[in-house]
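Page 37, continued from 36.
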């Protein structure tokens, strides 16, 4: 890291701390050449590659804004939306660049758990539903997963054969 004052190429780290809720590292540095101190902040970057090929930084705010539209009139508060955006970021964080359609897929899971109506609204736009049949198929799938969660099928080795 170059010193911003004298441009000396080899500065020394004096102190390191987590910043921005662990999303960044703040380092206090000292320049052995001029003796001045300065602070740097290191952040990992996550980029989204849009369909047109343009790359832009991932934004939790954009996730919240998109999901907020689907949640209009639903009993979902801002804290829940912020948590959903955090879950989406954690789900896609393993890569430096993520295609935008993977961000959409990462939204669907937590949104389904948060509010089924908002999930249907978001899925209808994201998956480009064109008819009632598309909605019916998605509702059928939602009911099946909900019923499966309520009454899971016991493992085969626990089933007792009838005598």
């Amino acid at each position: 890291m170059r010193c911003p004052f004298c441009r000396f190429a080899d500065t020394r780290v004096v102190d390191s701390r987590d910043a921005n809720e662990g999303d960044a590292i703040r380092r206090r540095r000292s320049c052995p050449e001029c003796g001045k101190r300065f602070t740097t902040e290191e952040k990992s970057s996550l980029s989204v590659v849009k369909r047109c090929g343009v790359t832009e930084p991932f934004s939790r705010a954009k996730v919240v804004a998109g999901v907020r539209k689907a949640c209009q009139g639903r009993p979902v508060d801002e804290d829940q939306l912020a948590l959903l955006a955090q879950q989406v970021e954690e789900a896609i964080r393993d890569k430096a660049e993520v295609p935008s359609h993977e961000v959409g897929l990462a939204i669907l899971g937590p949104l389904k758990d948060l509010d089924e109506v908002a999930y249907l609204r978001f899925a209808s736009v994201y998956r480009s539903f064109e008819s009632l049949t598309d909605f019916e198929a998605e509702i059928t799938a939602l009911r099946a997963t909900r019923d499966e969660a309520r009454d899971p099928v016991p493992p085969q080795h626990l089933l007792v054969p009838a005598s």
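The chain has five helices and six strands. Flag for discussion at group meeting. Residues 11 and 66 are 43 Å apart (CA to CA).
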